[in-house]
Amino acid sequence: MIENDKPPSKLSFIQSLRKRIASRIFKASSLNEVSSQLEQAHLTDLIDKEAFFIADRALKLGERKTKEIMVPKIEMVTISAGEAHNNIIEKVISSGHSRFPVLGDAPNEVLGLMLAKDIIPELVNGSLLDIKKMLREIKVIPETKKLDTLLEDFKRDKSHLAVVVDEYGTISGLVTIEDVLEELVGEIEDEHDVEETDELIQVAEKEFIADAMLELPVFAETFKVDVSAIDAETLGGLFIQQLGLLPKVGDRIEFDNLILAVTAADKRKVKKIGITIKEK
Q1: Is it true that 67-185 and 200-277 share their CATH fold?
Q2: What is the reported pLDDT for 191?
Q3: Which of 24, 51, 64, 137 could anchor a disulfide with 47, C-beta 3.0 to 4.6 Å?
């Protein structure tokens, strides 16, 4: 028998080493140990930067709650069961969304889900929209649901959206499967995503959504408030100065006759601020 004394190829050696690393990872006794082993694998070029990024975030998905990533209620686009035909069409067109929670007359009553594609046949036929006949089942979940469990639920149920409620059953926001996936791979842009240019949008009679970069003179002029004592140039700067620390989603302050609440932020900055005019 002729012995093959040819040394193993570099590729086979790396493949073998990767198997050993993987074996060690899955036998790790704690999340910190797994994370450390992943980092070591990245530092030694056993896995690339993108793989490390996704794997590390996947490990931490189970530590995060739905409340941290949901779209807050004030930014939700919803349909009312008895809403006028033209209003529904306008919402579908202007929002660019494909799925809409349908709410009932009672507070926090979630009737179901309407898909934009379901109204097309009715429009073609010239029929009035009967939303209740179009309703599909919708998930309603607590704010405290962990993201890894939520992702598994979305996959199992083949659903894409859930309404989020607090401990009292009050609607607090919504979350989509895309929101969860973005926690793994970063921001996902689709054909409806456009660069946001509107600094101030009115969403109800006394409710607005403002970009945190809204210039303070514009804010003051719009809402007729005095900002002369504020040492800041933007609405976000005003919020930080009044709060005294870097705000997070859900933080609220009162300023003059306004209630300001952070609706979107990351670890570095405030992005969006909800503005509600208080009743006199």
Answers
A1: no
A2: 47
A3: 51
Architecture per CATH, 200-277: 2-Layer Sandwich (3.30)
CATH topology of domain 67-185: CBS-domain (3.10.580)
Task: Write out the chain in H/E/C secondary structure.
Answer: CCCCCCCCCHHHHHHHHHHHHHHHHHCCCCHHHHHHHHHHHHHCCCCCHHHHHHHHHHHHHHHCEHHHCCEEHHHCCCEECCCCHHHHHHHHHHHCCCEEEEECCCCCCEEEEEEHHHHHHHHHHCCCCCHHHHCECCEEEECCCEHHHHHHHHHHHCCCEEEEECCCCCEEEEEEHHHHHHHHHCCCCCCCCCCCCCCEEEEECCEEEEECCCEHHHHHHHHCCCCCCCCCCEHHHHHHHHHCCCCCCCCEEEECCEEEEEEEECCCCEEEEEEEECCC
Prediction pTM value: 0.56
**What average pLDDT is seen over the chain?**
79
pLDDT above 80 (res 59): no
Phi, psi of 159 (to 5 degrees): -110, 165
